[in-house]
Amino acid sequence: MLYTPCIYAVRMPSAAPPSTEQPTEQPLKQPPAAERVYSHVKRAVLDRRYEGGTLLTEGELAQAVGVSRTPVREALLKLEMEGLLKLYPKKGALVLAVSAQEIADVVETRLLVEEFAVRKAVPAPPALLTRLEELLEEQQRQAGAGDLADVAVTDRCFHAEIVRHAGNQILARLYDQLRDRQLRMGVAVMQAHPDRVAQNITEHAEILDRLRAGDAEGAAAAVRRHLGRVGSLVRGEDR
Question: Going along 41-179, which residue ranges are E strands?
Answer without folding.
Answer: 55-56, 85-88, 92-95
